[in-house]
Amino acid sequence: MPQLDVSTFAPQLVWLAITFIVLYVLMSKLGLPRVSGIIEARRKRLDDDLARAAETKAEAEAVLAAYQKAMAEARAQAQAAIKERTEQFAAEAADRQRRLAEALAEQTRAAEREIGAAKDRAFAEIRDVAVDVARSITEKLTGSPADEGKLGPAVDRALTERAG
User: Fold this and answer.
1) Residue 135's pLDDT is what?
2) Gap between the Cα atoms of 58 and 64, Å rounded
3) Which helix (H) or strand (E) holds 129?
4) Which H helix or E strand runs over 108?
5) Euclidean distance between CA atoms 17 and 9, whole angstroms
6) Angle 88-92-84 (CA atoms, 0-180°, nearest 5)?
7) Span 114-133, mean pLDDT?
8) Cα–Cα distance between 134 and 142 in angstroms, integer?
9) Which residues of 150-161 are buried (b: 16+ CB within 10 A; e: fewer)?
10) Kind and range of the H or E run holding 105
């Protein structure tokens, strides 16, 4: 093999050095700058993506905070509306109850007036019946007609004593 021949080592080493230097220059001037540019572009794109992600996250957190605030306000408004309606219904119920109580009180007073009138009529009828019975008994017992002037006051006194 010619590579292992000692007499050809010097030219091989020269060509090895020349090839190494040419490849080194080509790589350092052409290959490595391109690779560095690609790596830098990827790093920049990654940083931009991370920055956009951070901005999006901040926006999402702001939207979430606004949503939670809106929900809290909506809950507060709903509670206020419920409280207002409850108070309104309670006031309406109290008003209806008051009107019903007034109507029942008026009906009770009217019924008491009717009962009083009926009682007065009954007492008047009882008085007339009592006067007729007293006249009848007096006539049967005495055989003579009874004195109307004395029968009326006597029955009135007797009814007053019974009622009192």
Assistant:
1) 82
2) 10
3) helix 32-142
4) helix 32-142
5) 12
6) 5
7) 83
8) 12
9) ebeeebeeeeee
10) helix 32-142
Contact residues for 148 (Cβ-Cβ < 8 A; gap 6+)? 135
**Single-letter code of the amino acid located at 84:** E
Token duo for residue 150: 């004395």
Q: Which residues contact 152 (CB under 8 A, 6 or more apart)?
A: 131
Q: Say if residue 111's pLDDT is above 80.
A: yes
Residue with tokens 């790093």: 43
pLDDT digits (tens, 9 = 90+) for 38-76: 999 999 999 999 999 999 999 999 999 999 999 999 999
What separation in angstroms does the CA of 14 have from each of 23, 25, 80?
Answer: 14, 16, 95
User: What does the buried/exposed string (b/e) look like for 62-72 if buried means 16 or more CB atoms within 10 Å of the residue's CB?
Assistant: eeeeeeeeeee
Widest pairwise Cα distance in the chain? 192
User: For the chain, what is the radius of gyration of the CA atoms?
Assistant: 62
Q: Domain spans of the chain?
A: 6-163
Summarised one tens digit per residue, pLDDT across range 124-164 is: 788 788 878 888 888 888 888 877 787 788 877 887 787 66
Token representation of residue 61: 């957190």
Alpha-carbon gap, residue 51 to 58, rounded angstroms = 11
**Tokens 């992600």 -> residue:** 53
